[in-house]
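User: Once you have settled down, look closely at the record that follows, taking as long as you need, and be ready to discuss the fold:
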Amino acid sequence: MNFGNRLLRCIGLLSLIVLASACSKKVEPEASVGADTVLKNGYVYTVDADRSVAQAVAITDGRIVYVGADDSVSSLIGDNTRVIDLQGRMLMPGFQDSHIHPIMAGVEASACDLNGLPGIPEYRSRILEYATNNPDVPWILGGGWAMSVFGPGGAPNKSILDELVPDRPVYLSSQDGHTGWANSAALAIAGIDKNTPDPADGRIDRDPVTGEAIGSLQEGAMSLVTDHIPPESLETRMAGLRYSVDLLNSYGITGIQDAIVYEDHLKAYTELADHGELSLRVVAALWWENREDLSQIEKLVALREKYTSDAIDARTVKVMQDGVMENYTAAMLEPYLVPSGTKGIPMIDPELLKTVVSKLDAEGFQVHFHAIGDAAVRQSLDAIEEALIDNGALGHRHHISHLQMIDPADIPRFRELDVVANFQPLWAYADEYITELTIPFIGEERARWMYPIKSVLDTGATVAFGSDWSVSTANPYPQIETAITRKSAINDEIDAFLPEQRIDLASALAAFTINAAFVSRRDRDTGSIEVGKYADLVLLDQNLFEIEPEDISETTALMTMFAGRVVHGELPPGK
């Protein structure tokens, strides 16, 4: 055998040995790679442009990678994919609240909380109980009392507080945050007596005979006392925020616009975000201080640059343009039907407001207005129009919140000026605030234009919804019900209020999802169930499209996901 043949034989033997060795070992197949989670067999209301309905959603790394039919999602199911059967339940985008006060509400919940109590006897019991249980607290603080309990004008007297807590200052804010109730000790610390003048943006309520301050402070007059209250600690604010995050997630809320934010609040948000506890996408509306001049813009820019992050967007400024109708401080085009003939209080001179908004717009800020009365709404629209003239259309998505009354001539201007109408829909029914504290003092004719949600929608303008919690519940389901029915979600005996302003369910859901995401500049990443967006989702216990509108308020969130992570409830069993 020559050398060449030997070489070929050796190579052949070697190949057989290698092959035999390979065959003797068990070769493990590669694990198939799929999505992290697949949710299937659901009623997936996507809130996309077509308002389409799907069956299945796939999620990878916190984002949506598939939306469609059950049959087509199988290719995304790998060995490690968690597959969840939604059992036909309704899955939709997480709700977003466009006007809310979570830190303030959370702190108030742990203080002397009067929210939900029916009247003065219950207020007295709660205040005395809190003061007795907290003997070392230097100030008795809290709030949540209803102006309607104290009648027209919403002006409680200090005598009640003096009797209950004579030895410490007491300050309790009203449910809507526009009136303060102080005892004599708090008034003394603030130096308020019958000679103290009313501030330009508020009113000290006085005894009609003696002129003495009776203890209720309207709008800007509240700061005469609040400026003397020791600030909350960072730990207190963080505890309040944790409470609120958990509560909001339990409703299916995954995004918010905090409507009044100071630097202390930004610190609390940042701390929670840094510790991975902030399961909300937050827009922080920096407070515009009416008592300061335009130089404060420099400070607002600094706060924006310091605190804006992936979790927190501090590119919005909150401007308070008026008060509320119940205490006659909402700015009106025509006088209130009261002896003084007041038209309310524009918090910022309308011409100055134009300058303020134009400069904020030029600096890259979105402006979030508080406007209740028809004059304040018009002044806010005029200021945005001036900014458009001065700066051009910069696309900052300015929005006006509350909108209790809009003059019919101004309704088309929301669409024309690209202004978002930010309604609080739970207020659009005939409760005692409307029947006892508002309509008698503005008249039936003007009341026809209260909360004209459908009229604004019909122009093609963008409508977003918010709760203004803790003024009213943060739970979106009764808010949606009232937007559709214009009735109380609690008391079925109350007739529909301006039923011609009812809207449909799809519009109400959009206002709490994609439109709210739009006003918060999050619509590219959130607000609908579409490929590429964050998996911010809520699973409901009933299909809102298959029940009577009057049953919507009974809905609960079975599970809430934030970027694909369950932050409330739990996923149904799966493989």
Q: What stands out?
A: The CA atoms of residues 159 and 183 lie 7 Å apart. The chain is about 30% helix and 20% strand. Confidence is low (pLDDT under 50) at residues 1-31. Residues 234-521 form a domain with the TIM Barrel fold (CATH 3.20.20.140).
